[in-house]
Design a protein that fits this description.
The complex is a heterodimer of chains A (about 240) and B (about 220). Chain A is mostly helical. Helix content of chain A is about 80%, strand content about 0%. The chains are: A mainly alpha (about 240), B mainly alpha (about 220).
Chain lengths: ~240, ~220
């Protein structure tokens, strides 16, 4: 047992190390190398955290969907553990995004919160996946909880495009995307060092995310092992 | 064909039960009316503001009464292990889903048919001629609510504190329906026609179709979870 998990643990350590290095370089680049924004000044630097956080959150919700669908199909515990771990991290990164957004919103828009489409969408995502975690914790039977959560994971993900559409039609005030614009390539609209900073930050966040995911997944596995041991001892 | 036959059988069972007891429909109706009173007291709207607020108030009332119905939806099956018996029978799960959805839909539509005119009377609205268009919006919205609501009601069936959990998981997912119905109704009340709101109607229709299909396909897993 111990021998077989060691290489995995080592690889995880390397992943964690890489994540820390990338995040530190990303922070250095976004705080020191990239120039301040022409209109917003220094505060705009929050973007280097804000954008990677929300993209990581979306990645996480996609993984919840994949894990859920796989679990319903194959009924393998590991897919459920993945979906659960990803949902928790998704909620974490969404909450982080909202907090960073508020800190950025106060000096630029003058308010902590506004009912703009993208903000509303993010808040709804937080509510959906908080509901997912609630549902899991309120069903005692473990395999039933896993199936129910898997179904919510799938439906929630299918609902995102509809929610997205409806809140966009409802209102939009958020600054239009400045990086991924349909009419121009990113290199024409923004300073290259800014893009580099963003790219490094993004890589750092992704590495960090997968490191946290592997840890959270391991916690789930260990819970299963403890439960199995308890059953074995007849406790 | 088999699917429709099974749907009809389960639905007629539920309707018969409801006809004998009238538990859900009466509670829902009184709760809906009660909400109209509460809204009227708490907002105390000037007459010219009523038409602006009407769609949102009306839909809040429908949402809350609908949730009340959903919480009761599988009550008959919970008693005496009837659910297990139902699942043991060679019944298509998709049919069970369609039957439960239609049952809740019928209850809600009955309540809405009374509550909406009542709203017009209590709030002194004059646009009686617009009621058919508003009913159409309400119908599409209620279908969406019942479709997703039935899935969620079955999903929370075995959870602790399930009545509390149900709205918690249902309402965030219902945002498209809530927004679409309210915007549609606002447009009708303001301009007398759908106009730009037709795209909202399409969104509602899309929502209904998507989750109806999803429901039929996955209800097997939903009910057995």
């Amino acid at each position: 047992m111990a021998a077989s998990t060691q290489p995995v643990e080592k690889r995880k350590g390397i992943l964690g190390g890489l994540a820390v290095v990338a995040v530190v370089i990303g922070l250095y680049w976004s705080l020191a190398v990239a120039p301040p924004d022409a209109y917003q000044g220094e505060v705009q630097r929050i973007m280097y955290l804000h954008l990677p956080s929300i993209l990581t959150a979306y990645l996480s919700y996609f993984l919840v969907f994949v894990g859920s669908a796989m679990y319903l199909w194959k009924r393998e515990k590991r897919d459920d553990l993945l979906a659960h771990a990803a949902a928790e991290l998704g909620v974490l990164f969404t909450a982080l995004t909202i907090i960073e957004g508020s800190i950025w919103g106060k000096p630029t828009w003058g308010v902590w919160w506004t009912w703009d489409a993208r903000l509303t969408l993010t808040a709804i995502l937080l509510l959906i996946y908080a509901g997912y975690l609630m549902l899991r914790s309120l069903i005692d039977d473990e395999s039933r909880a896993a199936s129910a959560a898997a179904i919510l994971g799938i439906i929630g993900f299918l609902d995102i495009p509809l929610i997205h559409m409806s809140v966009y039609w409802w209102r939009t005030l958020h600054q239009p995307p400045s990086i991924l614009r349909p009419d121009k390539t990113p290199w024409e609209t923004v300073h290259p060092s800014l893009l580099t900073a963003l790219a490094i930050s993004f890589v750092g966040f992704i590495l960090l995310y997968f490191y946290l995911l592997s840890l959270r997944y391991r916690v789930g596995e260990m819970r299963q092992e403890i439960k199995a041991l308890r059953l074995e001892r007849g406790a | 064909m088999e699917l429709l036959k099974h749907t009809y059988l389960v639905l007629s069972k539920d309707l018969l039960l409801e006809l004998r007891r009238r538990d859900s429909v009466l509670t829902m109706f009184f709760f809906g009316t009660l909400l109209l009173f509460v809204f009227h007291f708490s907002f105390d709207l000037p007459p010219d503001k009523v038409a602006e607020m009407a769609p949102a108030l009306l839909w809040l009332a429908f949402l809350f009464t609908g949730t009340l119905g959903l919480a009761q939806l599988f009550q008959a099956e919970r008693e005496n292990h009837c659910l297990d018996a139902l699942l043991l029978s060679p019944l298509d799960r998709g049919a069970l889903f369609l039957a439960k959805t239609s049952f809740n839909l019928i209850l809600m539509l009955l309540v809405e048919l009374v509550v909406m005119p009542l709203f017009w009377i209590l709030f002194n609205l004059s646009a009686w001629n617009l009621l058919p268009q508003l009913f159409l919006v309400t119908l599409l919205g209620t279908i969406g609510f019942c479709v997703l609501g039935t899935i969620m009601s079955a999903l929370t069936l075995r959870a602790r504190a399930r009545e509390l959990l149900l709205p918690l998981v249902l309402f965030p997912l219902m945002i498209p329906v809530i927004l679409a119905t309210i915007r549609c109704m606002e447009s009708v009340l303001k301009n007398g026609e759908f106009g730009d709101a037709v795209s909202w109607l399409k969104l509602l229709l899309g929502f209904d179709v998507i989750f109806m299909t999803v429901g039929v396909l996955i209800f097997d897993w939903v009910i057995e979870s």
